[in-house]
Amino acid sequence: MAGLSRRAFLATSAALAGTWGLSREAVARTLARPLSLGEAGSTLQQTIAIGPVQSRNYRTLLSAPGEPHIARTDILGVEGSSTRQQVRRSLVYIGHLSDIHLMDAQSPARLEPMIAQNHDTWGGAFRPQDTLTTHVAASMVQSIADVRFSPVTGAPLSAAFVTGDTADMLSHLETRWYVDLLDGVPITPNSGAVGIYEGVQVWGEAYWAYHPEDPTGDWFGEYGFPAVPGMLQAAVTQQVDSAGLPVPWYGVYGNHDTTFLGTLGVPPALKALAVGDRKAFEWLALGLDYVQGWSADTSAFGRLAHELITNLGLHSGFKSVTSDPARKLLEQQDFMKAHFQTTPNPGPVGHGFTQENLDTGRTYWSADIGPFVRAFGLDTCNQVAGPDGAVPQEQFDWLEAGLAQAQADGRLAMVFSHHNSATLENGAALATNPGQRLIHADEFIAMLLKYPACIAWVNGHTHINTILAHRAPDASSGFWEITTASCIDFPQQQQTIEVVDNRDGTLSLFTTVLDHAAPAEWSGDLSTMGLASLSRQLSANDWVEFPAMRLGSSMDRNCELLVQAPFDTNRITDAMIEAAQAADRTRIMAYEQGWP
Asked: Which domains does the chain have, with CATH numbers?
């Protein structure tokens, strides 16, 4: 290591070996080797495209050429140095996951029948890949683990961030699956009766659902969806093994982790239904008592409630299923508490949330990631109504003070939230503090622009890959807003972000989009990876949305995002960078050997 003296190198190797219970000699040999570019698959090497029609309207997927990084100078305003590739050095390399939407598709609390009431409005109430979300999540964790060394600089991964909507239906069980899969704990994604799927995908009465055993006569069969015998049985009986993330990971609230269906509070009847033994296959059967807590709402949910009121007494359309107390719905702090029920590695316990968060009920946090970056995890979710978000004044003030401190400390700042600038406009008064002012997108962006140390706002929610440039009014600085897609809708992609010092007064943020590790072309395999591959194919045939749109443009995927450095990076020595990378490389070494 060129930056560390021999004495410092030996001391660093010995200390890291002791921390992780590894051989001192093995650690020293690993750290003595120069960084080499990660060779694992990403969309730099290969992409996945929607293929030709196979049956009626149904299409399969196929492999396509990779996409190189595209340089974007929207903020900088000028081309970067032509020599930056030869001299650049990595400051931090992180993974970004969002909108995983793990789903207990058998839960009686699900609102699948609403798709029959209006497919265009309620298409998200049922997806043909609903039983396969844990398989996709495990495949995506594998993909993050596979790119644990940067394809740009060879730097080791330092951390991963999950920007909300991990559980789909505010479920304890779904949240448990999320934490376990990221930790590398195997799960069996079933609820209710052991080894049996109980739900709308085997009920003939649910003509609006996809029946993989025989889709003849259902909406999806008419579109051309194939018969996949054994899919449901494989989905709910096979153990899903996860590689686990190789680095510490951090979570924030999404609207689906806060309110029911990411939109509304939970009436008592819904809590009872979730753990009960009746599940609806007709939308009118959801009943007045199910939605009475929403009847004053003027949204589409409220209109549905009023329509149900006019049909009072229509309680047919339910089937008996096996009840399960593990399906209980989350209370507000339960999401935070789940992050403390975790394995020691990769850590940290709480995954961003601390004991202070539990004691005070505060749902946002900050954490230093290595010696150069400070991360701020926000809660932009509204606890009252509506899928979109806002930033309460108290949290806004806390973040501004934190950014000012990061600026003073000479640390780069990255802000993580679920909502993005297109969806930070919710005006519903907070239940916990109805008088508190809510900050929306324009004011929030203006505040971030006051602090050049803030180089990125990373988020999700819209299920579309998007990258926006936000430039300060005087054009002296700015930050990049990076929105990733989701694991539930096509293209089922996530990403990595690497911050690189170009040694010319600029930084580059490299965004690299990841397909999950399952094969592009489904071969009929019903293993975990096979089901993940099938899920992606099913999601590509969403005829209500336009699946290819969610890819974003080429300027929203693999990019080099240039920005002015907020301070003189010469204060960051090569020795400091190498010491930080040595810690990350040794942690990955411990991961590869099964953790201590």
From this structure: 66-103+127-265+329-385+403-418+442-565 (3.60.21)
